Design the sequence.
């Protein structure tokens, strides 16, 4: 029970932090496109993670058999998922970004079954269908249909799927500190995004980047969202089933929607709330029945 409580705390705090991140993304993408924005975010995060790792005296050694899996975590989660997430947020809104990516828990059920052997019941299958319908209502909103928003919604759906896959893969890396796993994942993404980002910086005036709201947004995304958020998420997932832990992503849309309305004045339509309700019901269905396996058995599926 103690592990469950601590895991719940870590995951809830991570979800809340990421809810605020969508506001900073909306501010930063007015000046910095998604790819170089993620690259700058990870540059900041890598420095923060390395400093934290030195302070905590963690072991940076990775077993040879785990490097491939760690590369996939960096490619799928830190690269593809985050780039599509920030692209989708740029094309839609902070609320839409936070709520669609919160569909990840339902998708985590599928990957948890395939990769970890967690139970996949009729109720959990219904939750996936319900959450998918909710996502589609938000993506193709009849009250606010825009081509850019539709493409943004598709980007966010890709972000939700890839985030779910990464979260399940993390369950197969239980022997390493969350600081170390996050650092190497971020490093993989930083290298992959390096060529385009350097080209963009070389052809971009620096004055807009020095605006306080821009560099403070990058610092929030790098230090708070990536360093703190990813470490908390990775740690929390080690303490409970992936299919159950994913529920705490719903702290993200609650915080993101509230801040988007409060700080950015972003409107909310009826289809947004209908879609949000369906996703919420889908996730509640997903966790009915509790844990399908103890956290300690995750390493058996490595």
Sequence:
């Amino acid at each position: 029970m103690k592990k469950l409580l601590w895991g719940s705390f870590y995951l809830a705090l991570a979800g809340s932090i990421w809810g605020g991140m969508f506001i900073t993304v909306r501010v930063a993408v007015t000046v910095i496109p998604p790819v170089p924005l993620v690259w700058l975010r990870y540059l900041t995060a890598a420095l923060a993670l390395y400093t934290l790792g030195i302070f905590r005296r963690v072991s940076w050694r990775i077993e040879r058999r785990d490097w491939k899996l760690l590369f996939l975590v960096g490619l799928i989660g830190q690269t593809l998922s985050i780039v599509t997430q920030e692209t989708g947020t740029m094309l839609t809104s902070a609320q839409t970004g936070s709520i669609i990516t919160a569909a990840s828990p339902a998708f985590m059920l599928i990957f948890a079954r395939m990769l970890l052997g967690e139970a996949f019941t009729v109720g959990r299958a219904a939750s996936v269908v319900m959450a998918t319908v909710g996502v589609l209502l938000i993506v193709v909103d009849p009250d606010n249909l825009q081509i850019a928003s539709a493409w943004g919604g598709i980007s966010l759906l890709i972000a939700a799927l890839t985030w779910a896959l990464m979260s399940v893969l993390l369950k197969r890396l239980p022997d390493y500190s969350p600081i170390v796993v996050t650092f190497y994942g971020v490093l993989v993404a930083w290298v992959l995004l390096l060529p385009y980002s350097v080209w963009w910086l070389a052809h971009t005036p620096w004055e807009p980047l020095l605006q306080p709201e821009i560099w403070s947004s990058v610092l929030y995304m790098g230090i708070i969202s990536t360093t703190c958020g990813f470490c908390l998420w990775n740690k929390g997932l080690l303490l409970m089933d992936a299919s159950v832990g994913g529920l705490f992503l719903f702290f993200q849309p609650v915080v993101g929607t509230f801040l988007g309305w409060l700080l950015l004045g972003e409107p909310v339509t009826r289809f947004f709330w209908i879609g949000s309700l369906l996703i919420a019901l889908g996730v509640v269905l997903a966790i009915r029945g509790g844990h399908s396996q103890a956290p300690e058995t995750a390493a058996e599926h490595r």
